[in-house]
Hints:
A: alpha+beta; Aldehyde Oxidoreductase, domain 4; 18 helices; B: alpha+beta; 5 strands
Amino acid sequence: MTAHLKLDKPQSDRLGDMAQGVIGRETPRREGPLKVTGRAPYAAEVGDGTEAVGVFARATIAKGKVTKIGLDAVRALPGVCAVITDERLLRNPAQGTANTAPVQGGRDVAYFGQPIALVVAETYEQARHAAHGLEIAYDAAEDAAVTPEDAEPESLESKQIDIGDLDTAMSHAAHSMDATYTTPSQNSAAMEPHASIAVWKGDELTLHGSYQMLKFNRNELADSLGVDPEKVQIKSPYVGGGFGSKLGIAPEAVGAALAAKELGRAVRVVLTRPQVFEATMRRSETRQRVRLAADADGKLTGIGHSAWVSNLVGEAFSEPVAQATHFTYGGANRSYRHLIHRVNRTCAGSMRAPGEAVGMLALENAMDELAHAAGVDPVELRLKNIPDRHPEDDKPYSSRRFADCLTEGARAFGWHKRNPTPGQTRDGEWLIGLGMASAARGNILSESHARVTLHSDGTATVETDMTDIGTGTYTILGQITAEMLGLPLDRVNVALGDTAFPPASGSGGSWGAGSSGSAVFVACQNIRAALAEKLGMEEDQLTLTEGSVIRNNTREPLSAVLDDDLTVEGHIEPGDTSEEVQQAAFGAHFAEVAVSAVTGETRVRRMLGCFAAGRILNEQTARSQCHGGMIFGIGAALTEELVHDPRDGHIVNHNLAEYHVPVNLDIPQLEVMFLEERDAHANPLQSKGIGELGISGAGAAVTNAIFNATGVRVRDYPATLDKVLPGLPDI
Amino acid sequence: MSLHTTLWINGETYALDADPRTTLLDAIRDHFNLTGSKKGCDHGQCGACTMIVNGRRINSCLTLACMHDGDEITTIEGLGQPGAMSALQEAFVRHDGFQCGYCTPGQVCSATAMLEEVSQGWPSHVSEDLEGPAPLSEAEISERMSGNLCRCSAYPGIVNAIRDAAEGGTT
């Protein structure tokens, strides 16, 4: 049986009517015991030890053609089984939701570090040695563009927008600011490197991979290989982090599949950490000019946000920097420019909150600068500028407790204690400051399927190719099912991460929980209807709890009323509610920093995020997602920067010792508050995405706090010591 | 060329005949199929491969297997099982001290050995005093666990889990 819901109308809060009481509740991750004991198998770990092992040899020039590969010398090395130089090797991973192969062909070099050949041997040690020894000759191009300045930017027509007249608004403004901000290339740096084991049986391929969006990845892999997608199965039951870096099929999967086919045996390819940095995805560096015009009270009359980003030739993705600027604040006169430099640097793609993560650094710094110039409290400035309707297309918003996040977050944080004059608070060597920023992230529903079976023994099974990349999917899909079918959570089995199951939205864009969870909801709702019909009652009269049906004040176990399993495949599709209203989750970040007056080092002492994102499906996993986002934001503010060599564009700090993600001691205990909210337009769960809300604006709260502590305004991210120190007062 | 090495892992003897270039981590993951220890960087920079060797936590990717003949090694598999977890493992689950779970075996091994270091009075970079007992403050836990990266950024949960387990609590 199948059940379908297209979201053309707002949905009632059906989950809220249920009796089990498990939805929303703090519930530890169900796969937790497997993970903490090392028993959860990740992609590289499912082999039987007989796989051949592949290691990539990669380009050492920024642009040009491969003229010769020294195959013979390497083939003669001990253990070497094959050297794959197939034209189907990927230049770089597919972009998220691409659904087709990315650019292929190992002979045309577009960036330093591009995979050229896969050396396959009996052992990792042999393959690594041989790959390092592979001699590759090039005809290097003279016109490589290794920095954005080397390439005239392209302008994307649909993103050049003018509403009203910003120039005039700026010239008539009582208060205005016009500043340029820069953010560097960044890397998702998921802890598990990209890994694949490919196994062919005849013309059927099974790929054990580490991927976020299996239904797309299957088509991308099939298209890359030139085979029928029906012949390809991908399994990713455990994914060691993604943050966007595993959205699209990547070079190691295609390399493993090609090698396994050629050798007639299973092949494992795991990227080394430097390869993850150089041959997967980076977040583009950005240059952003923000202009704000305001009247004497601080009410915005205009906003301008222009962005310069970069990517390889042939890539459709470009960091959507101004995404949140369109709908967060009012102001009649608005102007946007979006320009893309085509560079010979590692491919740019989605990293946690593409757009907002860097766009809100600039926007929220600019708001702080305006607040300071206008003498208005930064929280007050934001409250003044929350528009009634979408400022550009006049759509109403769906649920939006933005103002409450600002005021309740400020109250909980003790914002009133902030001295608005910078550099006034001192604790020994340390200058203390408070800063804040708004958070906003658009909400998306994505088509998703899930199969739910209510077994005759009163247990249930959920099957979908949805992934759990640390997001809590195993747990929340279990909670939704348990709530809808009135089962204790331990009676619900959730199976994920296999393309043999119905295709889900995948994990990305913060849409995973709402989309895949809604498919589960739709299936459960129809199981309830079937059960009610069987019992001769209306579905809305059916009370299910603790594995029992309650009717006529008597309780009967489900197993007593079920003769057979009930199976429904639920299918959710976005509809008119995605178009008719502006849907977004909102929040507010507050940070207290200490900046050393001696060294310029910044330490985050306290941070609080107050968020409203519709129904929270599991308060514990949701809080962890917000922690993760906020900490990514702290990294972006203070330490994270991929450094490109100005000679050839290569990533100099391609490892975890020199690309500085936050470590434990960098992070204090963080506070996360969720405001009660339901969003009837978002999906039948009335939830909104939360995986990226926590990073949106977070870094700006930190840099705004640095300004409050020191009077130093760092507009060139990250705010490392060298950028803060020159502006500090003499000791 | 291959070298013979005998390793004592989680109380059992394992005989290894492997390429001398094989790291301790790769030997245990690839040759003995104990894949609980993770390879996050292979450079000793992330801590995902942390094992306890002769009582001390080390990055097992930074040492060759053939250097450990006769050594006593504890991996994550030796600390507990899903149905019989150690107090630390239970606390990690309870406090959500992880998300994707990939760094977690290293965090748990590291924390297990770290608590032993604290009980022996080893000071850390943030200790007030180099002599005497080291109280297990939040800063002490964070400093001593800073060799184990977590990109999901479960640091608040990790600190709470360790503190809870160390105090023998169940909250």
